[in-house]
Predict the structure.
Amino acid sequence: MRRKLVVGNWKMNGSLAQLGEVAAVAAAAKEAAGVDVAICPPFTLIASSVARSAGLPIGAQDCHHAESGAHTGNVSAGMLKEAGARLVIVGHSERRAEQHESDALVRAKAEAALRHGLTAIVCVGESEAQREAGDAVAIVTRQLRGSLPAEAGEGELVVAYEPIWAIGTGKTATPADVAEMHKAIRGHLLENFGDRGGRVRILYGGSVKADNAAILFAFDDVDGALVGGASLTAAQFVPIVEAARG
Ligand code: PGA
């Protein structure tokens, strides 16, 4: 039985003035027994979020694959760990597009995160054109093959399926499409990681809101959500956490 996991991805949003939202989510999450909740604010807010989170796990939205060195502007997994982060999102489609991140780079980042005992949330997802061409499952399978670490390290591996065309657009994949894709991802995990693949949580992401979360969470292989826009306020995020309690 996999526990549901609901993760907020603040993207490049938020400021010290909004850390009350972290505290409010933390208070609500304490009541939501049986659901794991986390928030990933920008790097600059990680340490102060940890201070306000009363134990609610705080994560980052990216890490560098190296331990340290001449990588101006980057932050390593070890640095995140030291700042109090417990998880990190890698390979988000916005980074794959804006920073030209390849599957191999995403895998190296995930491996670095796991080496430091962080939970690595590896994102995959197809574009609208790829879905319309009937290639969605093939594309996602290729991303999984290229982006997932060969072995889970000390940290937990999580997969997030986020169809690119559903992110921030208000469009969500149909429940049938989500179910089909999550089943395909589970198949890949079982084939490549054996029993451990059965324990990997698979999140759905892309315009998840309070009013569509329950339908998505009802599927066997939807183990939670990666939430962007609706994670910025406790008022919108907490009902999604509630929906995950079933
Ligand atoms: P959204 O973003 O919920 O705003 O669509 C999800 C994500 O990109 O993680």
